[in-house]
Amino acid sequence: MPAVISKPVRAGLPGRSLGAAAVISLIVVVYSYRQHRNTAAKAKKSMAALATAISSASMRNLRSSNTYTAGQWIESDERERQFDADAAYFQGGPSGLNTDGKRARLDRVFLQQLRALARIIIPSLASKEAAIIAMHALFLVLRTWLSVVVAELDGKIVKHLVRGQGRQFLAGLLSWFAIAIPATYTNSMIRFLESKLALSFRTRLTQYVHDLYLNDNLNYYKLQALDSRIAHPDQFITTDVARFCNKLASFLSNLGKPTLDAIIFNVQLIRGVGLQGTLGMFGMYMATASLLRAWTPAFGRMAAEHASLEGDLRAHHARVITNAEEIAFYRGEERESEQLQGSLQRLIAHARSVAARKVPHVVLEDMVIKYTWSAFGYLACALPFFMAPTGRMSSSGDGGSGHRTQRFVTNKRILVNLSDAGGRMMYSIKEIMELTGYTSRVYSLLSTLHALRRDDYERPRAAACGGTAGEFALSRAHGIVYQDIDGVRLTGVPIVAPGGDGGGELLVRPLTWEVRRGEHWMVAGPNGVGKTSVLRVLAGLWPAFAGVVERPEPAEIIYIPQRAYLPLGSLRDQVIYPHTHDQMQALGRTDEELMEVLTAVHLAYLPAREGGFAARKEWKDVLSGGEKQRINLARMFYHLPR
After folding, report:
1. How many CB atoms lie within 10 A of CB 23?
2. Mean predicted confidence (pLDDT) in 303-321
């Protein structure tokens, strides 16, 4: 490729822990309230960081501007070192994965992908995300412990009711309401921390993607113009990243909490129904879990395919919005409607197929989890009483009856919680399969961006490897680029249009051409012969397949594209792009200078007509075609390249 040369928790005995439960719960509530006040303010900062990710990424890569500070240089170098360290973890995507998620399943590949992404969203054990996970785990343990306490308290209340002990019954109700306070707060904090964790994951991952996508390596251009592995990158960066982070954040609650419940409740159940009954329940869980797993559809592949179809529909709408005027001139709304309806019908057909495949799965799931497990649980709770000697069953009068009732209600409550934990573990399998689909898509995006960062393009297909296409495959480009001369020089550089399959088309035979300072050239010729392509190679958008390209430093040259790009922002932003207003002020430039620039390109009337330099509009719809081209020229006069 062209070488650029330039500068674990213990559950106590519930019957003896009601007082301790109240004290510990009160301490946790006070501590969590203080943490909640601190994290509420940080949540707003996280949203602001997510909203400004693109802007900050662009700022970090304006190395050529005079306003690039030493701190930004250090931050950029640190980011580059992180990319170098992460590259080894994103080697399998470009050639081994397809973006439709057909390999999305729970296997070793998924675990490797998740490990690679975890390096980004949880950079260290001292990170904010690790602290949130630790606090989330603490509340999960607390909720499980409170569930055990409530089960024991439930049995005592029923025992007092059977014995007719009114005072103890009322005391039990008061204890019930006392436990409800920390229990409800714990549930709220679990949901809050889950949302906060998802937001933190998304902030880090989106920032990382933007830094890798929008940089001076032009990955955002290569991804669409020189490589075809990722279709609709906007869908990947927005929707898929958000869904991946939400699914991963809920993973702790959907699987971690039921697993913890199963361990603790099984310990309590052994005390209540004995080891044999617990082993019987465990065997029944494993057998039914195997049955459900065998009948579970490929939800990961379905989720990935659904996301891909949504991306197609979104891209069609975006194309209509971008080219609304051209479509209106041609009266092409019927044709566009047909394409939109086609994308919508494919999405609906897939959604209906998924819904139809879920019906038998949900029926079997509910039958096993809600009814089979419950019936087996009643049997396990009742067998110790039926199998006990008759003398023990009838001893102690009402006291014995109350004690048996307490044991049965407590064991039943624990068993219900255990069944619920097992049910949520079964339900979470579906969530995990969907997580594999989103993990595959996000990993594919990052692995492709890492590949483009080291100029590793899509491999040419076997059918496209012969003749000219094989000769001009992107992997064979070996031209040299220098960025340190006063002028422009091409020496033996063929102008090649990169092909979609990794091959290319030769437009101009090896070209030797030089432009010195002060010279003016016009390149003329019919359409399609490579006039603009020469500019693309010179600017570094296309690789030099051979020869030597010599050009000035990026800050000393400016390229004006054929189609004017008008970013979101004020009229001032249109003239000074890609600088920001802060950069303009740091350079000592003024609005008076901008007026002189507009006068030079015969646009001096624009500020008065549009409401001043600070006016913000959709400029691509406001300015005429000629005005857009003159804005292009105004940028050249503002930046004053050498």
Report:
1. 11
2. 81
